[in-house]
């Protein structure tokens, strides 16, 4: 398996701003803002911090903007829809604009005052990071799930993996019975949780796949992401912060499913 940080992570500083993104920012009155690359994902999508020329707090971003080449996987349209639905229910970025621009999709959100759990600041304090990751998922999973219109269940994922993605899903085995159906983050990796200045859970980002699923779909992958991002650190802190003991069978199934995708 490819270690995800080999393909996703902070891009080089000189990463160019795609022309259609620069044009969209100009149309939004942000043409003179500083646009700094912060993240590149596995599908070639880019995230930039947008720092308007005249900010209240010099140097701090006012917006983040995601740009995805069309057809690169998850759509930013689906992410914008989920962010809007979650507003007021759970801390997530608020949507300022969702634009289809030629070969790319553009999602502009208001900057949240936090840093990702894998930022330099929190990587050296894994105790804080793991606690916040556990607290964040617990908070999301404790929301009322009944009215969630989005699905991240096994059937839908198997169909997508076996269908358009053409993966062989026959080796996965039977899905374990559902423990608790909750609203899952859907891309539960450490970089998609933001921590506040005090080290507590601030918000979730990257919610294109958010939907109803067994809570172990999130827990299995988040705990895997801990091994990648905080090697040699005891993951017991995460399980304690979430408030559950690891379930090896469900963890194994949902990791296999994740890897098959
Ligand atoms: N509104 C926001 N406020 C603060 N940070 C953000 C915001 N949106 C994105 N980020 C930062 O940018 C990174 C990349 O965004 P993300 O949505 O995870 O993109 P990707 O789908 O490429 O992984 C996040 O890990 C987070 O650090
Ligand atoms: Mg992400």
UniProtKB/TrEMBL annotation:
Domain Aminoglycoside phosphotransferase, first and last residues per copy: 59-252
MF annotations from Gene Ontology: ATP binding; kinase activity; metal ion binding; phosphotransferase activity, alcohol group as acceptor
Residues at which Mg(2+) binds: 192, 206
Domain of life: Bacteria
Keyword entries, A-Z: Antibiotic resistance, ATP-binding, Kinase, Magnesium, Metal-binding, Nucleotide-binding, Transferase
UniProt-annotated catalytic positions: 187
Database matches in InterPro entries: Aminoglycoside_PTrfase, Kan/Strep_kinase, Kinase-like_dom_sf
GO annotation, biological process: response to antibiotic
Family: Belongs to the aminoglycoside phosphotransferase family.
Designated name of the protein: Aminoglycoside 3'-phosphotransferase
Annotated source species: Leucobacter edaphi
């Amino acid at each position: 398996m490819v270690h995800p940080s080999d393909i996703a992570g902070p891009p080089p500083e000189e990463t160019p701003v795609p022309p259609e993104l620069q044009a969209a920012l100009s149309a939004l009155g942000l043409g003179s803002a500083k646009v700094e690359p912060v993240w590149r994902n596995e599908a070639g999508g880019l995230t930039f911090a947008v720092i308007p020329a005249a900010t209240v707090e010099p140097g701090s971003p006012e917006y983040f903007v995601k740009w995805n080449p069309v057809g690169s996987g998850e759509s930013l349209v689906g992410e914008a829809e989920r962010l809007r639905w979650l507003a007021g229910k759970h801390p997530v970025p608020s949507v300022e604009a969702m634009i289809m621009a030629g070969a790319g999709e553009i999602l502009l959100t208001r900057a949240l005052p936090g840093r990702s759990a894998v930022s330099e600041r929190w990587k050296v304090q894994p105790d804080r990071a793991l606690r916040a990751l556990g607290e964040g998922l617990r908070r999301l999973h404790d929301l009322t799930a009944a009215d969630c219109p989005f699905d991240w269940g096994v059937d839908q994922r198997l169909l997508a993996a076996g269908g358009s993605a053409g993966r062989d899903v026959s080796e996965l085995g039977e899905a374990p019975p559902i423990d608790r159906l909750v609203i899952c983050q859907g891309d539960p990796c450490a970089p998609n949780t933001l921590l506040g200045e005090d080290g507590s859970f601030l918000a979730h980002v990257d919610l294109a796949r958010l939907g109803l699923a067994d809570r172990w779909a999130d827990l299995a992958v988040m705990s895997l992401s801990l091994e990648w991002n905080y090697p040699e650190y005891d993951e017991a802190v995460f399980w304690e912060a979430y408030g559950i003991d690891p379930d090896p069978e469900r963890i194994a199934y949902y990791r296999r499913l994740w890897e098959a995708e």
